[in-house]
Structures are given as structure tokens and as C-alpha cells.
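pinned: reference chain
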Amino acid sequence: MSADRSTLQDKGGNDAPDDDTFEVSEILQKALDIENELQGCIAFSGATKNKQDEMRSHVKRLIKLVMEQQVMITHLMGRMSSSWEHVPTSYVEMIKTPVKAPRGPARSRSRSRTRKLHNVLVIPKNEQSSVDTRKQIQSKVNPSRVNVKVNSLKNVNKGGIIISTPTTQDSDKLIEEFGKIDEIKDNFGIRKPKLLDPSIIVFNVEESVTKEELLEGLREQNEERLIANLQVRTSFKSRFGRNWIVSMDPTALNEIIKKPKINCNWNRLGFRENVRIIQCLKCAKFGHFAVNCKNVELKEGPGLCMKCGQKGHKERECVSETPMCINCHDHNVKFKTKHDTKHSARDNICKMRGKELDFQTSRINYGP
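pinned: its C-alpha cells
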């Protein structure tokens, strides 16, 4: 599919961009996978041999065109230097040369988890708001006095809060301190939240595939033998079939996440780790949907623009040339930080979105 990595060097001896070359190879591989599926359909079509040969000829011409278009697009995007030597330009070269993975660690299908958080869940025994819970807890315990580091506090359902700490020693010490205070012990439930099983989202599964067929295919056709706690959580319609969310054992996830695709029935399917971030389209904050937004000023009308952070219009109607993330802006004002704000509130480079992702991954059991 792609040329030998040793040939992809510029005249100065530097390697060509590994990630981009691998991305091109993935796209070309998808085209070849589709060709193989079409060839199978032709073989079982019942058409005469001459007609089958004619159809195969059309398929090969189409795939060749896809290959040539991809190379052309890649050149136009500047991803391939014109000085690279021996870049494959023909369909024959592309299908004869094996795909090589980029140097270094296997390409992960998930975000790198560089920081592990340890959480303490505080739930009031009587009905009250998370704001009140936070005030009561903070008034009774000072982390600096008990030598506990706290990364963040987040509101959760039932008037509760989750306190995130950097180490298990910090979370254990915090629980111990709470247990010494009668007012906290009598009015709140304190515990470490149960970690969730990790999950993946499998893309574009054929509509006709049932839940049972999907699970059987995943278990029996992948070398990892996904047999531990493999469960379907839900599925939803996509452009080309259905997307399925499947939870599994941490060991299985840590193995399968290294793979570019997984096998299921007659197909090799794309997938990625499923880490869900909920963001309100009214106030742009994380952790709740717009229908549950408690911001009275924004509940009616379009709410805040996710691009510029201003009220009165939706993101698709925004004419501002300069984006401004309302979440990073508010954090800078409140905590005197200096986060970059020149991005949308939904942009993956957003510092606050990254913190939310850290928090969500801290609730998942990735094993020891």
C-alpha cells in the first residue's frame, strides 16, 4: 500500500512525516477493503463469467481513480514533499507494497492518559443542591491543614459532588478526615465511586447485524478473544449502518485498542475508545445537557454561541472572525490563569475540555 519507509526521506536525510504517511495508507487500505467486498459480491452475483469480468474491470478502474485522487489531494495539502524519492504513483505499486506502521509505540485509538485522578464521592442524605453540599464540605475541611492535594470539585446528580485528587493517599486521607466530623458523617454519604468498565464505539455496523451477532463476531473473530464482561450498552443510527457502544474487560480494551480495526462477521470495522463528554449547548459548561441547564438567563433563546461566547445567536449564525472560548475565559477571570481563549468552546485544544476529559477517564477502570 505505501512505499517502504526507508525510501520516504528528503534530500537532507530526514524522515518524511510518519503520521501523515500512515494516514494515507489507512485511506488506501479502506479503498482496497471495499474492493474486496465488491469482488465477493460479484462472485456470488450469478452473472456470467464475461459479465463478472466486465464488472471487475469497472471496480479496478474506480479503485485506481480513488488511489490517484488520494495521492493528488495529499500533494495539494502539502503532506508529501515533491523531493521525496520513489513515492508510489501507480495503482500496481500501491497494492504490491505492504503497509508499515509508524516508528515508535503502536498508534493508540484513545487519548493518552497521562494523569490519573482519584475521586471521592459526596452525596447528601437529604435533598439539597450541589452548591450547598460544596459549601458545607468546604466550610468543615481545609485540605492544606490535613496535607491533602485537591485537583478539582465537580457537581453531580442528587446534590452530590466529586472531589478529584492526584493520588490514592490523598483520597484516602480525605475520606478519613470526613469520617472524623460528625456533621459530615451524619448528613452525607462518603465513598469512592465505582469505576465504570471501559468501552469502545464500533462504527458503521451493517443494519442487519443483531446484538447477538455483533457480540459473537467480536468474541470469536479477534485474537484477543474478548470474553470478559463484553456487553452492548446501546446503538444508534449512522450514515452507513449503526454505531454500537460495547463495554469490556480492562485487559481486553488495553489489547484491542492497539489495533487499527476489529473483525466482525464479513467486515473489518473502525472503532475508537468511547469516552463521553456532555456539554450544554446553552451555557457551554460540561456535565449537563441543554434541557437540564439551570442558567436562568440562558435557558430561553439560543443561549451562548459556542464559537465567540456571546449571547443572542447560535454557533452556525456567528459572524465573528475571532473565536473566544467562554470556559477558558471564565477560568482565567476566576483563577487568574492564562489559558488561551482563541478557540471554540467545543475545540479539542481547549484546556477546560481537556480537564473534563481527564475527569471522565478517571471514572473508568483501566486496570492496575
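why pinned: The chain is about 35% helix and 15% strand. The longest strand covers residues 231-238.
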